[in-house]
């Protein structure tokens, strides 16, 4: 029995040691740890430079030395409930336990103490009881608009007393008791005060941040807050209804059928666009959205976040999910609250019973409410957007067709002529697919038909998803009726077989003759998925004439040389990573890699990539590709050395033909060595 008792005690101690701390307590503990070298009960505080805002520090803020994007200065202060003793290190002494009235004077709330005396509240907070007082700091009273302060102090027995009673709860609540989303009846007509305890350790009451918590008193507890709070009686829909700056929003909410949502119970954050925000939108865009119930509902839901976030809870960029389904990046830049990186919040923290409103002076339009043209404009595909319009394709970009736009990045047009020729118009029509697709639904070998009637192939690689030579460079943009894929290159649909591609390019005239001489014409015309590292005329010209002549007289040896340049599998440039390997029709694997946007095959640079064919892809090389030197692999565990001999023949056969070796040692190969 005694052993069982000791076991139960041990379990209790362990459970206590590992008890889950509230976010605030976790941050406070981190501040204590950082302040420990300065003595007992010292907390590290981070003060934003140029302001009076101080925060207990968490790990991320400590190392970044930034809050809201601004540098901070670290100071060391007594942790809540402790004070310094002259001649001793740190803060060894607990604050004297006195009543709430006297406590206000020693925790930075002397103005609240003064107004408590004027409102005849002193006797109540000196006497018996168990209260929680959310006491505005001296700075909070100083920041109160003068007309409001005058109204309070001109009627101290009613207005000021009621205001102070609204800051009080008739029971003792420590920071641990202030759970996220809870409400407590105040001592003013039992009107609730609303608590939010965020994961970053910030605690707010009616969106006022607790700056000094858990200041214990004989008759309760004091939490110092950074603003004077006011009673909350209306839901967010009523707040919108009664604000002239939100007239357009009110009309839009009613048209979208969202009135009941904003009247019912909940805990929302609404980034409410002002009338000015709506006026900034082009009239045709606004008319289109207001006349489209689905687009309008998406637009408004994009302004509503599922959980309540007071501005004081934001100390760094935070992705918040909206009712529309996507996220807003809500952050701060010094004193400014930002949305998607822009300081567009004009007024903050208008609190209702079921949420909080932040006024924004710019309309947030989600992709799901945009046309293709609106998706493209103001993004990284503006060049393509202009070209599509110049090509007379605007109707496809602003209409209700269920299509998919393949929009090349602006960088894809560098060093390219943007003249609107018939060929360019035809090419651009082949950048619009006849159906609405999601990239997640595409599969290898799938064919996608364009407005131009061309069927484009889908290729799925380990590191990329590509349509012909162009790979998808960003997440899908899903518009109201159509989708947009951002691609890294201008599409080049296949114009024939590999042999057709080579014949159509004068740079490969020597290669075409050699292919015919080697009997490989049929191979490169038949169905397949080849990757041909095609030597240009310059590559063959670099071979010494005598060696070249001998090679031309031996079709079998010529065929082996060419087959070493033909990979068995299809590989566009976007699929090449470091140490990519391709198995040629003859010989050891080809080693591929990239450097400074250039592809290398066995260290030979590709001079032009992605010449698309119906049965493969051609990459032009200016040098004959040869096997890499033998590699020495050291097996330390066995203490043995293994030599891997690069071969050109398939399987384990090694080319020993003198003529082929001379070709590999020719001027062309020496040129290749210089570029390695």
Describe the structure.
Residues 39-93 form the EMI domain. This is Transforming growth factor-beta-induced protein ig-h3. Residues 94-229, 233-364, 368-491, 495-625 form the FAS1 domain. Binds to type I, II, and IV collagens. Plays a role in cell adhesion. May play a role in cell-collagen interactions. By secondary structure, this protein is α+β, with helices and mostly antiparallel strands. It has 5 domains: 33-93, no CATH class; 96-225, FAS1 domain; 236-365, FAS1 domain (Roll), CATH 2.30.180; 370-487, FAS1 domain; 498-621, FAS1 domain. The chain is 31% helix and 26% strand. It has 27 helices and 37 strands. The strands form 9 sheets. The chain has a 7-stranded mixed beta sheet with strand order 8-7-13-12-11-10-9. The longest helix has 16 residues, at 2-17.
Features:
alpha+beta; 5 domains; 7-stranded mixed beta sheet; FAS1_dom_sf; FAS1 domain; single chain; Transforming growth factor-beta-induced protein ig-h3; 676 residues; disulfide bond; 27 helices
Task: Write a brief structural summary.
By secondary structure, the chain is an alpha+beta fold.
Helix content: 25-40%
**What do we call the CATH topology of the largest domain?**
FAS1 domain
The CATH superfamily label of the largest domain reads FAS1 domain
Main structural class: alpha+beta
Indicate how many domains the architecture comprises: 5
Tell me, rounded to a whole number, the average pLDDT. 89
List the total number of helices. Answer: 27
């Amino acid at each position: 029995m005694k052993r069982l008792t000791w076991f139960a005690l041990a379990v209790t101690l362990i459970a206590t040691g590992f008890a889950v701390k509230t976010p605030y307590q976790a941050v406070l503990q981190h501040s204590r740890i950082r302040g420990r070298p300065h003595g007992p009960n010292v907390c590290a505080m981070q003060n934003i430079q140029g302001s009076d805002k101080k925060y207990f520090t968490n790990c991320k803020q400590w190392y970044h030395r930034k809050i809201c994007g601004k540098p901070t200065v670290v100071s060391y202060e007594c942790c809540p409930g402790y004070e310094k003793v002259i001649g001793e290190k740190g803060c060894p002494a607990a604050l004297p336990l006195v009543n709430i009235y006297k406590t206000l004077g020693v925790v930075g709330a002397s103005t609240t103490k003064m107004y408590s005396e004027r409102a005849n509240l002193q006797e109540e907070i000196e006497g018996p009881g168990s209260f929680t007082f959310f006491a505005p700091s001296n700075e909070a009273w100083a920041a109160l608009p003068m007309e409001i302060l005058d109204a309070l102090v001109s009627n101290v027995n009613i207005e000021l007393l009621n205001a102070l009673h609204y800051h009080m709860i008739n029971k003792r609540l420590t920071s641990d008791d202030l759970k996220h989303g809870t409400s407590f009846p105040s001592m003013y007509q039992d009107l609730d005060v609303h608590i939010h305890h965020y994961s970053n350790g910030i605690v707010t009451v009616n969106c006022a941040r607790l700056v000094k918590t858990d200041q214990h008193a004989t008759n309760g507890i004091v939490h110092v807050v950074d603003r004077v709070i006011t009673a909350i009686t209306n839901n967010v829909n009523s707040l919108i209804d009664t604000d002239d700056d939100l007239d357009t929003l009110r009309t839009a909410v009613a048209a979208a059928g969202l009135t009941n949502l904003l009247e019912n119970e909940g805990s929302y954050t609404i980034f409410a666009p002002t009338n000015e925000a709506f006026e900034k939108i082009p009239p045709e865009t606004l008319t289109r959205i207001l006349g489209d119930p689905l687009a309008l509902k998406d637009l408004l839901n994009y302004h509503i976040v599922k959980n309540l976030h007071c501005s004081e809870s934001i100390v760094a960029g935070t992705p918040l999910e909206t009712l529309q389904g996507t996220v807003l990046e809500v952050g701060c830049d010094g004193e400014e609250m930002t949305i998607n990186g822009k300081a567009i919040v004009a007024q903050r923290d208008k609190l209702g019973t079921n949420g909080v409103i932040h006024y924004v002076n710019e309309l947030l339009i989600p992709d799901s409410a945009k046309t293709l043209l609106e998706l493209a404009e103001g993004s990284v595909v503006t060049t393509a957007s202009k070209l599509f319009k110049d090509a007379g394709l605007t109707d496809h970009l602003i209409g209700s067709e269920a299509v998919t736009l393949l929009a090349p990045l602006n960088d894809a047009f560098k060093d390219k002529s943007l003249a609107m020729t018939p060929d360019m118009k035809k090419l651009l029509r082949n950048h619009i697919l006849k159906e609405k697709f999601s990239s997640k639904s595409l599969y290898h070998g799938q064919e996608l038909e364009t407005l131009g009637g061309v069927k484009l192939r889908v290729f799925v690689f380990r590191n990329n998803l590509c349509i012909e030579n162009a790979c998808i460079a960003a997440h899908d943009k899903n518009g109201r009726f159509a989708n947009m894929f951002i691609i890294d290159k201008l599409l080049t649909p296949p114009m024939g077989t590999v042999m057709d591609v080579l014949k159509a390019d004068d740079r490969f005239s020597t290669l075409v003759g050699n292919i015919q001489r080697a009997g490989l014409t049929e191979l490169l015309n038949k169905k397949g998925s080849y990757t041909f590292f095609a030597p240009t005329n310059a590559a063959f010209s670099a071979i010494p004439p005598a060696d070249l002549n001998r090679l031309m007289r031996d079709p079998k040896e010529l065929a082996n040389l060419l087959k070493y340049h033909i990979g068995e599998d299809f590989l566009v440039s976007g699929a090449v990573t470091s140490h990519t390997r391709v198995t040629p029709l003859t010989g050891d694997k080809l080693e591929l890699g990239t450097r400074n946007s250039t592809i290398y095959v066995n260290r030979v640079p590709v001079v032009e990539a992605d010449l698309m064919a119906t049965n493969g892809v051609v990459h032009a090389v200016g040098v004959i590709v040869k096997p890499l030197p033998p590699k020495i692999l050291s097996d330390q565990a066995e203490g043995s050395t293994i030599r891997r001999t690069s071969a050109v023949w398939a399987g384990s056969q090694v080319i020993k033909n003198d003529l082929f070796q001379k070709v590999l040692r020719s001027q062309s190969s020496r040129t290749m060595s210089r570029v390695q």
